TrEMBL record:
Pfam families: RibD_C (PF01872). Residues 4-78 form the Bacterial bifunctional deaminase-reductase C-terminal domain. InterPro entries: DHFR-like_dom_sf, RibDG_C. It comes from Blastococcus brunescens. This is Dihydrofolate reductase family protein.
Length: 90
């Protein structure tokens, strides 16, 4: 699809009963969150220590959101998958 991602996703959410997923662009995901179009945020935690790397925050510069944990599971005895419902922090 082409066009503004926020407008396209808003239209798709209205037209489709199938849940939408985004695994792509951080800037697009930030814009979708800011527009209130994200129903769930899935975070996968890989247990490593990145002392010299990993210095850039994923959502640096984004709005503040409160996250309500709505699901979790352990994938391989160490990797955690956490699912949150985001709401704009007021």
């Amino acid at each position: 699809m082409s066009g503004d991602a926020v407008e396209v996703v808003a239209r798709l959410k209205e037209e489709s009963e199938v849940p939408l997923r985004s695994h792509g662009s951080l800037s697009m995901n930030r814009a979708l969150m800011a527009a209130g179009l994200v129903d769930r945020v899935q975070v996968t935690i890989f247990p490593v220590i990145t002392g010299r790397t990993g210095t850039d925050p994923i959502f640096g510069g984004a709005a503040d959101f409160d996250l309500e944990l709505i699901g979790s599971r352990t994938l391989d005895g160490r990797t955690q998958e956490l699912v949150y419902r985001p709401t704009v922090h007021t």
